[in-house]
Here is the input.
Amino acid sequence: MDKEIRCFECGAKNSYELKEIIRNYSGDGYSFEMLVKIPFCKECKTPIFSEEIESDIVQKANREIRKQRDIVTKEEIIEILDKYNVSQKTLSRFLGWGEITLTRYITGNYSPNKQNSDKIKELKNPYMFQKIIEDRSEEKKSNKAQIKVYEELQKIEKENGKIFSVVNWFLSQSSEDAPLTHLALQKLLYFAQGWSMTLLGKELFKEECQAWAHGAVYPKVYDLFRQFKYMPLPRLEEKINFEKDELAILNAVKKYYYDVFNARALENICHCEDPYKESRAGYGEGETCQNIIDKESIRKYYNKISRDYNINLEGLSKIKDYLNTLLK
Here is the structure.
């Protein structure tokens, strides 16, 4: 409580009692009543302003406003700061905001708008955090935040399987001149899996893919990258976690698919192949479908391609002949 509470109506000092009143709060996306206790002058019975009490009320009201509008909490912000070992000032700078913006959000006296809240929440995803720092020349690998991001990406690989090792390899092959989008990434995973099953006799990763409207999709990967939409995905440093033959397959997919075709063309290639078409039998163009593209169907199709075009590990360049014929 304030050291001294003075009534501005009658001038009485520290002559008050706390009374309960109901305050109404309403705005964009929220509406509620809150029971609060404020001081009333014993002498003239008027309410008295107390900075300390009002500050507590504001923080309580802001918590309810954030909850109703699904606004990021101060605990979530602190969790992100700890996760990437960054200060409030640094993260504000990364986001292009004033240096004290996050401090205001954390104290509870100021709530972020929905757009800023969503921007902060997105950073729980380390791929999104990598995106906001990748082009900052002062934030290289030696930076603590950058190191923490890579640690989080390694956790994703460990917890979610080899498919994310493949994801991260393709991200390491992107550049400013040849950015990689989520749409393209999904197709590259599909092609790499197909050629691995055929030429190496084994799956590159265990996940099943589904025949969505825009081609083959691995739902686990989709969940992590959906927020990027059509934005370029972040670039990563290359880490070799593959056997020699696996790397040959990945490099071939990069050389004959990613380096040649844009995302829409890669989608078209997928649409032209039998496993995808068979999985979507009975569905119209653009219609929602989550049917699994059977791995055995993929293996048989790519086996036939490899025989027809004499494609093997020593003759991967003949993939070009197949793709030229397919797209005619």
